[in-house]
Write a structure and sequence with these properties.
Blueprint (H helix, E strand, L loop, with lengths): L1 H9 L10 H21 L3 E5 L6 E7 L7 E5 L10 H11 L2 E5 L17 H14 L7 E6 L1 H12 L4 E7 L8 H4 L7 E2 L2 H8 L12 H11 L11 H4 L7 E2 L13 H9 L4 E7 L7 H12 L11 E6 L6 H4 L1 H19 L23 H8 L7 H21 L3 H8 L9 H7 L1
Parallel strand pairs: 3-4, 3-5, 5-6, 6-9, 9-10
Antiparallel strand pairs: 1-2, 2-4, 7-8
Helix pairs in contact: 2-8, 3-13, 4-5, 5-10, 7-8, 10-11
């Protein structure tokens, strides 16, 4: 015990006692069977190409896509959508919502940005394009964000007031440590086993790890890491064995998020016009009680619209650190459900015929030089007859033949001119001669 205390003082990694590992491995194995494997077998994970941003995002949907009550769960730096499959499933079952878990660019199985475009506008553009591609703009959605995800949720809500019914921001504030959001401390590190990775992840030399729950941490590790491709490594127990494979976090090793300044972050919060709930861990050193009050005050600054009563509430979750979802998963789930119930009335739209991408400022309206040009482009068009189609096809064929005949360049003509007669024979001729 004294040795462990001395190691902590020196900033060394203290090994987890051997007698605790069976319980940790059992919890991780149960999580793998109940959530991860079940989700993969049902084919929950899907991919979508975003035409507006060029990104390919992985996402999972829990619930009926025709449901009008849609929720997004946005993860923190170093995480991915799989980390919250269990939470999404419970929110869907208990609240009747359809829940989407999306891998941010540079995280999970989504594409990485070659240009290193990891900033608030880029992440907001991805979510906007995602909503357009899946036609989710017919009803306002609710956003639940953790850390980085909370920052993106607030920014998106501020830019698209008609698209968001409410936001739930967890462990995020303008004065947060940049290193907690800008990058992940192990994004360029390889581990020999999950046991080694968990030992380093929950080491007490890192902030907020004094109360870290090893079992919950191990569960989330299964979704954070890139799975080894070797067929010899199967089952969670073997994943915890030493030197069976190489494990790396599923995040761009060059990921570096451009953290907004304190003033910029406060402006983001002040633009949020929808219902907002803010939660922090009671024992969190990442976000204290004053930080919570500052965030709530910023969110309340936009409250002059009497037609739309905005509810802003905050809470410190008892017996929880910065890792609220690991420490108190059931309590946090209930708090999130309560926040969603507040936002639920704002998700209902009686007449959604006018909720087009153009009206919601998601797509620019076409511009025309004159009224005549506008009428010509927008007036009802004549339905083509069979004769019209035949004439167009005939014209296209004539143009194609004309282009094809002119496409021979000088090099081809010269080659034909100086070729011998043998070169004009069929290729099978030479096989027959041989």
């Amino acid at each position: 015990m004294k040795g462990d205390l001395e190691k902590r003082k020196r900033g060394a990694i203290v090994p987890i006692p051997e007698e605790k590992w069976p319980g940790i491995e059992k919890a991780a194995s149960q999580f793998e069977a109940d959530v991860m494997t079940n989700s993969r077998e049902r084919g929950i994970g899907k991919y979508i190409d975003l035409s507006a941003t060029g990104m390919r995002l992985k996402y999972a949907r829990f619930g009926d896509e025709r449901n009008d009550k849609t929720v997004f769960i946005l993860h923190d730096t170093g995480e991915n959508g799989e980390c919250y499959y269990g939470l999404a499933k419970q929110v869907q079952e208990k609240g009747g919502f359809t829940v989407y878990c999306v891998d941010f660019r540079g995280h999970g199985d989504s594409t990485y940005s070659r240009e290193g475009q990891y900033n608030v506008p880029s992440f907001v553009a991805d979510i906007e394009s995602f909503i357009i591609e899946l036609d989710l703009y017919a009803h306002p959605v609710a956003l639940v964000g953790f850390g980085l995800g909370a920052m993106v949720a607030a920014a998106f809500a501020g830019e698209h007031e008609h698209l968001v019914a409410g936001v739930t921001l967890i462990e995020s504030h303008p004065r947060c440590r940049e290193d907690a959001v800008a990058f992940h401390r192990f994004q360029s590190v390889s581990f020999g086993s999950l046991r080694e990775a968990v030992t380093f992840e929950i080491a007490t030399i890192w902030p907020d790890n004094e109360r870290r729950n090893a079992k919950q941490c191990a569960k989330r590790m299964l979704s954070k890491f890139r799975k080894p491709k070797s067929d010899e490594v199967t089952g969670v127990m073997k994943l915890f064995s030493q030197n069976m494979a190489t494990y790396e976090f599923r995040i761009d090793s060059k990921f570096l998020f451009e953290v907004p300044s304190i003033e910029e972050h406060f402006k983001i919060l002040e633009k949020v016009k929808c219902h907002a709930s803010v939660y922090r861990g009671e024992h969190s050193s990442f976000m204290d009680e004053k930080d919570l009050e500052d965030v709530l005050a910023a969110l309340r600054r936009y409250g002059d619209d009497k037609k739309r009563k905005k509810i802003v509430r905050g809470k410190s979750i008892p017996d929880a650190s910065h890792y609220v979802f690991e420490d108190q998963p059931a309590t946090l789930r209930d708090y999130i459900l309560h926040s969603l119930l507040i936002s639920e009335p704002a998700m209902i739209v009686e007449n959604n015929a006018s909720r087009t991408p153009e009206f919601l400022n998601l797509k620019p309206l076409p511009k025309y030089a004159t009224v005549e040009d506008a009428i010509k482009a927008l007036k009802p068009r004549k339905i083509p007859t069979d004769l019209d189609v035949e004439q167009v096809l005939k014209k296209c064929k004539e143009e194609w033949d004309e282009c094809d005949s002119e496409s021979e360049d000088e090099e081809v003509k010269m080659r034909k001119k100086y070729s011998t007669a043998l070169a004009n024979n069929d290729s099978q001729y030479f096989g027959m001669v041989g």
